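Sanity check. The docking grid for adenosine-5'-triphosphate depends on where the pocket ends up, so I'm generating a full predicted complex first rather than guessing from homology. Inputs follow.
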Amino acid sequence: MAPNALLDVRNVETYYGNIRALNGVDVSVNQGEIVALIGANGAGKSTLMMTIFGSPRARSGQIVFDGTDITQMPTHEIARLRIAQSPEGRRIFPRMTVLENLQMGASLDKLKFFDEDVEKVFTLFPRLKERINQRGGTLSGGEQQMLSIGRALMARPRLLLLDEPSLGLAPLIVKGIFDAIRELNRTQGLTVFLVEQNAFGALKLATRGYVMVNGSVTMSGTGKDLLADPEVRAAYLEGGRH
Amino acid sequence: MTQAVSLSAPATTAPSPIARAVREALFAGVISFGLFVLFIGLKSDQNIDNRLIVVTRWGTLAIVVALTMLGRFLFVGFLAPAFQARKARRAKVEVVSEAGFVKRNLLAIAIFALFLYPVFIISTAGLQGSLKWVDNFGIQILIYVMLAWGLNIVVGLAGLLDLGYVAFYAVGAYSYALLASELGWSFWILLPTAGILAAFWGVILGFPVLRLRGDYLAIVTLAFGEIIRLVLINWREVTNGSAGISGIPKIDFFGWFTFNVSDPNYFGKVFGLGVSGAYYKIFLYYLILLLALLTAFVTIRLRRMPVGRAWEALREDEIACRSLGINTTNTKLTAFAIGAMFGGFAGSFFAARQGFVSPESFVFLESAIILAIVVLGGMGSLPGIAIAAVVMIGGTEILREMNFLKLIFGPSFTPELYRMLLFGLAMVIVMLWKPRGFVGSREPTAFLRARKAVSSSFTKEGHG
Ligand SMILES: Nc1ncnc2c1ncn2[C@@H]1O[C@H](COP(=O)(O)OP(=O)(O)OP(=O)(O)O)[C@@H](O)[C@H]1O
Ligand SMILES: [Mg+2]
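Predicted complex below; grid placement will be based on this.
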């Protein structure tokens, strides 16, 4: 466990009723890193993302963000520490326009930096600018993903959580989104914690990675090491692109 | 300064349809005059002496010509553009057309018409004859418009299904009824007081239902409405039970003059106009009109402010809201409080208008009607809701006037008894015809400001 981690998840257990979805998960994300979390369907990746955000709450263990224990904090206060997420299912506001969705992302600063930040998002995702007055719900899947990430960026996050940004997208768009993440990380030093099914792309992008199986982390290492690992290759990469 | 981005369509040089319509109407008038002057204007006839004479019928001719002109005017000015727009929409061709004068200034025209309405009624029906039109059709409808706009904040914007809205209406009405008759306070102090009390009860209701949504929330709010009503019935020492409170003081005009005939500064005396009940009604009409407009104004402003946007976001996705740092608890409570506040305003107005309140006026059916108006109007749309209120409340009022039905169904037939039946029928029809209400689409609150500068290289990239 890194001593100076920006996000430190220590031995966290999360339950849905009586069913344990996370059993003692340890994950840490350092300042300036891109960390990928891979695993099969139902492994508990999204649960971990949501637990970091306080809903559902961890039943035991501790989550520390930049020295602050956030385990018991309400979700909106966790967001105020500048953790932003593009959650599973994107969760954009379907009846609101692209612009309004982005405004919602900037709620924390009461739109103080809106004009400046929205241009950055549009530079990253020019497609959003073309669709600025279109309702979120009528965007294509890829556009909705861009909007979801854009909205999270509007909050000026110190840590960005992305849950399967590549889900359901054409390879070219996936590449665009991964490029955008890399770009944000390189130019702005944005720290990213990323859940992916696209293990190859995610591990190539990531500084470090974790593998999750049945609610526990079974493996971790640098992106390169995991990509080379025969077990990882067998479980998550065979038949895929590599 | 770099070039500003213009998102609005460039103005066209084509003349507005209205100007064209006027021209075409004049033209049609000339033609029809030429055509009909011999057919209608002049007619040969035989007089008593069997001599052929020419009868002139300039009046009929004028009517025919005028009708032709009017028809042409309406067709060219409104019908044809409407058809064209429709066709264009079907063909998915972007038609750049400047909205007509009427359309552009629709809101101003509507408000202007509402202010002129009593003047128009008095000039046509006389002072006494105006009573019914100003009271039943004006005030009655506007109360419901205001209530529905208030409920719209809770249901339409924040998406919290509230079936007990009438409770806040009752709180406002009883606040005024009790405080005005017991303490003799003026309406102008009690109006905000009633609003604050109602808002307070809104928060009281809000707390226990914070975690509820949809149907569960609806049931609890329904129960809340019934609880308030039962308290009003059973707390006899204060509310006088089902008998209600009567003799509630009228509203005065900021102390300058009153509407009590016996007072020295009675409105009719001050202005030397004599005695009439219509003055008070007309005063009430303007008051409720202003209160309703205040509700609309506040709603429109709030929608553009963080709290209003948070309401709408809350309706769409509560979890996403929280993860954007929005305190959903406070957001919901403010929606309940502000919605309730307008209910309280309307309630105190209602008490002052009736001069009498009883729990009878605050039954569940009232909540249901207000909610129906919000839903029919298209949740969230202020104009849609106003239309729905006019149709539903005005429609049921018109039933009272339909005495000719007695000729068909016999003298014992009372059309207003079929009010709810028709209300329901109308709802079903509207919902089949427009499932999302009269105005179903949501009006965005934000557009990219034109003054914002964007480098041209960026714009190019945007289309790359
Ligand atoms: N709200 C819930 N109530 C009950 N069980 C849940 C709930 N959400 C998730 N689960 C269960 O918890 C386990 C972990 O789910 P989770 O969504 O975290 O998986 P995941 O790793 O994100 O999978 P995927 O890659 O398919 O998104 C699954 O077995 C799932 O059925
Ligand atoms: Mg998942």
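Relevant for the grid: Residues A 45-46, 88, 163 surround magnesium ion (ligand 2) (CB under 6 Å).
Also worth noting: Strands of chain B lie at 42-46, 52-56, 245-246, 356-357.
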